[in-house]
Design goal:
Length: 277
């Protein structure tokens, strides 16, 4: 999860893309958008079917897109979108995550609130905006058959008091998990989740990478499902006595893409529509 240190300005974006029809004047349009239908590889571990009228950027192009939108990138994200919502995908080689624990939403929310509170201290030192945790937008659910964990926190920007919702998905595999951050405006999030989950029917791990293909001797993750929600690295750090240090690090690394960015992407969708015609 990565929180951008600078709010993206829709005014700047619209000014930069004033000439919608002129591709050479639009750095976003110059990116190598791959229009569906096609099949994409996720870090060589899984595949995703991109349907017609949906778009995809590989890791390198997603990094450029993140730079243009002032959103920090891990460098290994790929982008899957329909212009209304955006999904950032990457594979995290954390090992085989055992899924035999019970998730306590109330306890996890408390842990997350404590983590955000600690990260806000770090963000104030950096001169960055702070966040408030309102509660769950979508309580954690685990689909044991699909090996899919999903959840969404409802937050609020302390300065603007605007709501922020990102929906997270972890799909477990043999050697790690595909992590997905879905971004949409709060009022569109429920519809976006439904559409996104439908498109996940086109996702599958490669042969040899599926959760059910675990073999004795494979790397096993140091944590389980609950820690995936609050941050696996932080959970391990808490046991080892340097929780605060890790939280400070995560404060600059969490991904929470903010609302103005989505409104700006609505413009990009109109550009794609023009190109299709």
């Amino acid at each position: 999860m990565k929180i951008p240190s600078i709010l993206f300005s829709i005014v700047i974006l619209m000014t930069s893309f004033a000439s919608i029809g002129a591709k050479e004047a639009n750095p976003v349009a110059q990116l190598k958008w791959q229009t569906g239908p096609n099949t994409q590889s996720i870090d060589g571990r899984a595949t995703l079917n991109v349907p017609e009228k949906y778009y995809y950027l590989d890791e390198g192009e997603t990094k450029k897109y993140s730079d243009l939108s002032h959103n920090p990138s891990s460098g290994n994200d790929s982008l899957f979108t329909n212009g209304v919502w955006e999904a950032y995908l990457n594979f995290d080689e954390i090992g085989y995550v055992k899924d035999n624990e019970t998730i306590d939403p109330d306890d996890l929310l408390k842990q997350y609130q404590e983590g955000v509170k600690a990260s806000n201290d770090f963000r104030r030192e950096k001169g960055w905006g702070t966040l408030e945790v309102e509660g769950w937008f979508f309580k954690p659910q685990y689909d044991k058959e699909k090996k899919l964990l999903e959840w969404a926190f409802l937050l609020k920007d302390s300065a603007s008091q605007k709501p922020i919702v990102n929906y997270y998905t972890k799909i477990l595999g043999r050697t790690g998990a595909v992590s997905i951050t879905l971004v949409a405006t709060p009022e569109n999030m429920s519809t976006a989740i439904a559409d996104f989950k439908d498109k996940l029917n086109g996702f599958d791990f490669n042969q040899g990478e599926r959760y059910t293909e675990f073999k004795q001797g494979d790397k096993v993750a140091e944590y389980g499902l609950a820690a995936l929600i609050v941050g696996g690295v932080a959970a391990v750090a808490a046991k080892k006595g340097f929780f605060a240090v890790i939280l400070a690090f995560l404060a600059g690394a969490w991904k929470l893409l903010l609302i103005p960015f989505i409104f700006a992407f609505g413009w990009l969708k109109s550009l794609f529509n023009k190109k299709d015609k």
